[in-house]
TrEMBL record:
This is UDP-N-acetyl-D-mannosamine dehydrogenase. Transmembrane segments: none annotated. Keywords: NAD, Oxidoreductase. It is an enzyme of class 1 (oxidoreductase). The keyword 4Fe-4S does not apply. Its EC number is 1.1.1.336. It comes from Corynebacterium kefirresidentii. The gene is wecC. The keyword Oxidoreductase applies.
Length: 421
């Protein structure tokens, strides 16, 4: 049973639902391959910006591509879905209080798409999701459209697959075309059709499997990283207790040909690694012991850093503290789930009478969560350091690395990133 035998033909039109950090670049890459793409988002301002070729968020190198596919008419944004040969769902999948997935965005997308589905249409879920979600999405589609069937032999067949996004924010232009893709359909025909779609713009290998394994593959990749960062974070706490420099320790251990320890930090941020492992935990509560513990270790790191800063503040009798960085990782402006931001917020709350001098070269103004505090100011790094006896290094942004080490002489430094080790 192949695409040719089933006479599914070429994919000429694609509808991408959700124009965020993943959906929009995906839509633009597909449009750049010559396919006509309608990108759909509920945010009207966002849609308007895109149709003017303007970036709704920062991603290096992406603006030129966006402008070009909008100008040549291959990409059009809209608030309404349109008929298409294939649909990609790239909407958020937050978790509920019990860490189970919140399906509301997927459900809303499926209900939107359902009325415009034609027999033979393909629907791909890209959003990171727990095992079984693609099947649930198919059930929602079929409940709305009982005339369609996921039986590949049916003339009214609906093809459904999962193809998780795997690009690293900040490197999307390289990784969107180059990364290998894991593709898992509800049946082999759905998998093949999704492979045809992704081959239009991706030069990486197409790794074919079933939907549940594809869902779990994505969660596994991010959990692998989370567990390994937790190992590094735990080592940093053990090393403090034993009076060992963790950066030297890791460097020495990494000389072993089969050891490659990641970097400790103030905790794990961003919208992926701090979230996705919980989907495994909620799918296998009893069994996912290590994955749960790793999450707890990483989530506990900001409180440990606060305790270290408190020791330094008390030792110095400091009335001013320099905080270097609030982004969730180096050289980006993204503050989502940032442990550095949460540490600064906790300091502001804990010490209303002390000045918290924040240096963050990637933003022009403090986020609302910090402007609420009178004692927090955004300043440049040299000013923050020279005015404070205690310096908390929370993000290792490149501009910080070029500061002379001598500016830290006599300072009590809590360096969570090993920037000057
Ligand atoms: N971090 C450390 N120590 C390290 C590495 C990272 O503390 O050695 C921290 C970072 O500072 C940051 C967090 O971990 O707070 C996550 O950063 P990251 O660079 O590891 O990952 P993300 O969240 O930007 O992107 C990840 C990527 N997944 C993997 O590398 C397995 C990316 O490929 C995924 O597409 C993305 O998650 C996603 O959307 O799922």
């Amino acid at each position: 049973m192949s695409i040719e035998e089933k006479q599914l033909g070429p994919i000429n039109k694609v509808c991408v639902v959700g124009l965020g950090y993943i959906g929009l670049p995906t839509a633009a890459f597909i449009a750049d391959s010559g396919i006509s793409v309608v990108g759909v988002d509920i945010n009207e301002r966002h849609v308007e910006k895109i149709n003017n070729g303007e970036m709704p968020f920062f991603e290096p190198g992406f603006e030129a591509l966006l402008k070009s596919v909008v100008a040549d008419g291959h990409l059009k944004a809209d608030t309404e879905v349109a008929e298409a040969d294939a649909f990609i769902v790239a909407v958020p999948t937050p978790f509920n209080d019990d860490y189970s997935v919140n399906m509301s965005y997927i459900e809303a997308a499926a209900k939107n798409i359902a009325p415009v589905l034609r027999p033979g249409a393909l629907v791909v879920l890209e959003s990171t999701s727990p095992p079984g979600t693609t099947e649930k999405m198919a059930e929602i589609l079929l409940a709305e459209r009982p005339d369609l069937s996921t039986d590949p032999e049916s003339a009214n067949r609906l093809l459904v697959a999962h193809c998780p996004e795997r690009v690293l924010p900040g490197k999307i232009m390289e990784e969107m075309a180059a990364n290998d893709r894991v593709i898992g359909g509800l049946n082999p025909l759905s998998t093949d059709r999704a492979k045809q779609l992704y081959s239009s713009f991706c030069n990486g290998e197409m790794l074919l499997t079933n939907a549940t394994t594809a869902e779990m593959a994505k969660l596994t990749e991010n959990s692998f990283r989370d567990v390994n960062i937790a190992f590094a974070n735990e080592l940093s706490i053990i090393s403090d207790k034993l009076g060992i420099d963790v950066w030297e320790l890791i460097e020495l251990a990494n000389h072993h040909p089969r050891v490659n320890i990641l970097n400790p930090g103030p905790g794990v941020g961003g919208h992926c690694i701090a979230v996705d492992p919980w989907f495994i935990v909620s799918s296998a509560q009893e069994e996912a012991k290590l994955i749960r513990t790793a999450r707890e270790v990483n989530d506990g790191k900001p409180a440990y850093v606060i305790a270290k800063i408190t020791e330094a503040v008390e030792a110095e009798g400091a009335d001013s503290i320099a905080a270097l960085g609030i982004a969730f990782k180096p050289d980006i402006d993204d503050l989502r789930e940032s442990p550095a931001l949460s540490i600064v917020q906790q300091m502001a709350e804990k010490w209303p009478e002390k000045n918290i001098l924040v240096a963050e070269p990637n933003v022009n103004e403090l986020p609302e969560s910090l402007t609420a505090y009178q004692n927090v100011q955004l300043v440049d790094a040299s000013h923050a350091i020279s005015s404070s006896p205690v310096v908390a290094v929370l993000v290792d942004h490149t501009p910080f690395k070029s500061l002379e080490k001598s500016v830290l002489e006599g300072k009590n430094v809590v360096d969570t990133r090993g920037m000057w080790s």
